[in-house]
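Quick review question:
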């Protein structure tokens, strides 16, 4: 990927105000899979060069804590049986409302797994995660990391669309979250990035806000997969002034992906 392309992707994330202050531009690396640490634009430089309007960001929704009624995790899942179970699932009321389940997409042994909230209208029609407006922004975010969507795995906490694009409720999350745990067990990613409140709270079993969760490292599951939380792309569409913070979170993930000793 050349520099012009990368800048275009950053601009697609609305990092369009990013102008190097210095006479020579920040290094924009070519990448094979993940941006080398040495070449990642430093967070401090981004803080210096992006205009961040901190005024009145729309609040991220607060969801109720997960009620533990989830079906048990199957000991040794495989892709086909897991997909079949999700497709047949009626564990919550969303099962009767869906057009298609949205299982997830991408590389089945991806190093990086992104987790969103639940399908929207377009995802419900296509069966693919993140294909609507938020999905297009997510694609730009992934490309800004020097990756293609096919190189990572993208899934949601909830596999069926909640009506009217409302947030999934605690029962729906509890009914679905073990499918996600089984996906993680199959993929065994080196790193996970939770997108938004629902994903962050569900994966970490917390009621902390996404604003409080982002900027920190967590681990997920028994294998202690490093996990980071950032804002959901749909939230960024409503509050584009928060994109610089997401970029800082992505830089943290890229740096750690390139530091084998840390994970
Ligand atoms: N589309 C998805 O697939 N997931 C989300 O969280 C939002 C939109």
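Suggested answer, residue by residue:
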């Amino acid at each position: 990927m050349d520099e012009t392309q990368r800048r275009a992707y950053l601009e697609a994330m609305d990092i369009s105000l990013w102008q190097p202050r210095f006479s020579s531009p920040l290094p924009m690396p070519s990448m094979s899979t993940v941006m080398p640490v040495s070449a990642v634009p430093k967070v401090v430089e981004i803080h210096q060069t992006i205009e961040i309007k901190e005024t009145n960001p729309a609040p991220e929704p607060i969801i109720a804590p997960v009620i533990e009624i989830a079906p048990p995790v199957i000991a040794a899942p495989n892709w086909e049986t897991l997909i079949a179970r999700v497709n047949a699932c009626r564990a919550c009321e969303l099962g009767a409302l869906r057009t298609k389940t949205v299982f997830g997409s991408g590389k089945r042994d991806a190093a990086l797994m992104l987790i969103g909230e639940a399908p929207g209208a377009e995802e419900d029609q296509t069966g693919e995660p993140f294909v609507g407006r938020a999905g297009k922004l997510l694609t730009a975010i992934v490309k800004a990391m020097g990756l293609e969507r096919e190189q990572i795995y993208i899934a949601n906490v909830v596999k069926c669309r909640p009506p009217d694009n409302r947030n999934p409720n605690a029962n729906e999350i509890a009914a679905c979250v073990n499918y996600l745990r089984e996906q993680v067990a199959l993929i065994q990613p080196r790193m996970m990035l939770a997108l938004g409140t629902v994903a962050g709270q569900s994966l970490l079993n917390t009621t902390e806000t996404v604003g409080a969760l982002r900027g920190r490292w967590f681990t997920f599951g028994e294998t202690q997969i490093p996990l980071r939380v950032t804002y959901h792309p749909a939230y960024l569409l409503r509050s584009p002034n928060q994109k610089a913070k997401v970029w800082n979170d992505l830089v943290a993930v890229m740096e750690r992906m390139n530091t084998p000793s840390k994970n």
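Why it works: Residues 79-240 form a domain with the Uracil-DNA Glycosylase, subunit E fold (CATH 3.40.470.10). The pocket of uracil is lined by residues 102, 116-120, 123, 129-130, 132, 134-135, 156, 234 (CB under 6 Å).
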